[in-house]
Amino acid sequence: MSTNRLQHSPLQPEAAMHSFIVQAGDPFVLEIRRGQNVRIVDLEGNQAVDTIFYNARDYSDRYSAQDTIREQGSIYLTTGTNLLSTEGNTLLTITADTCGRHDTLGGACATESNMVRYALEKGYMHACRNSFMKGIQSWNRGMDKKDITSNINFFMNVPVTPEGKLTFEDGVSDAGKYVELQAKMDVLLVISNCPQLNNPCNGYNPTPVQILVWDSNVQ
Ligand SMILES: [Zn+2]
Q: Would you list the domain boundaries of the chain?
């Protein structure tokens, strides 16, 4: 259930065609073409990177946590995981992972859940759902609130207890750890680099991440 498949990538950062830094708390949107590889680097460690993938030709076909979990028979994501869409397409495959596992059950933080989980006065604090909205609005292709569906929390440690409860634990990631995915079709990547300050998912200190993209067949 929690098999970690640590795997380094042969791809060299110097050969990447794009490199972006996403500051703590910021959204990020990018189209990734079929065959391209995208790496997310946890630059300073213990940073949750909330991520949704869409079929770039049809945004109503998007990442499905349920289908991904059912098909691989495991609740955590790591090397070898195929990220499936609501229409049963493989959007991307995780090809390298130096962290070991990633959550897809915990969902994205919202002002509402911050109030329920922590305190009413936390309602003003910035949350991932705000960043996702900001991201898709800046992309400006007609997506709306209804398009913010299940997501992945890269580098986030959300163990499931024997009783079936979710707990937010201190991160298992560390500075420089990364996860790399190969696109199996043209996809839209939408990230909220989580601003959460009320639980240990970011070590109470949100930090930047790096996004690297390699063109197909470049090593
Ligand atoms: Zn968040």
A: 16-214
